[in-house]
Amino acid sequence: MSGRMNGAAAAVATERKAKRMMSWWSALSALGSITVTGPLGIAIAVWLLAGRSWRLSLSWCLMFGAGMALVVVTKVAYMGWGIGIPEVHFAGLSGHAMRACAVFPVVFYLAFRRMGSPARRIALGAGTVLALLVSFSRLPVLAHSTSEVVLGGAVGFAVAAAFIAQARSEHPATVGRVLLALCIPGMLVTPFTEPVHTERWMRQLAMQLSGRPSAIERTWKLRHGSAHPAPTAQQPSRDAGRQLGNAAPFAI
User: What pTM, to 2 d.p., does this model score?
Assistant: First the structure.
């Protein structure tokens, strides 16, 4: 009897711990949402304009916009035509990973770029670690597969690296505190705002472009640490309907 009670108590404690961890990952994941990273991306452009760095601001807008466009293209390609890589469970770049890896390293770098070299490196490292954590959080919340997160993060880091390489030759006049003043309110407030329905928009776009009555769903289930394979979108089996019903939803 005592052993059963101890076992039940251990199970309850484990469940509570798992829920706390899930809440932690969900909070991290929210930092990569469009309602956070979108305003941060705009804040970077505004800060550069305020420092009269017109060319640098334009470069950031083009680079970040190209990364966002690549996310949309890959997702719409799968939703509309089933173009993906089923073998590695790829149905489109993770938008959260791409935006986090593009925005956070740049924000930290620009905010501390006028300080000494050690401070700049530490700040850039902190931004990179935060971006990695946000990207990884998409796995335990079952929003993306490993390939989608890794490739999305790679695109984001490419954007950040290209921008920072160009920014080293520029000298914006506005100090980093202005960027922090623009960024902090957004990070504190926007996670609690109404979510932007980007997924719905992409579904509608995919259906309009492809002429399909409904968007193609993933044909595999996302699980902690792995993805359960299912028939491909082009050749569904008799059980595909049930599997599609349980497939993980897309999330930009």
Answer: 0.79
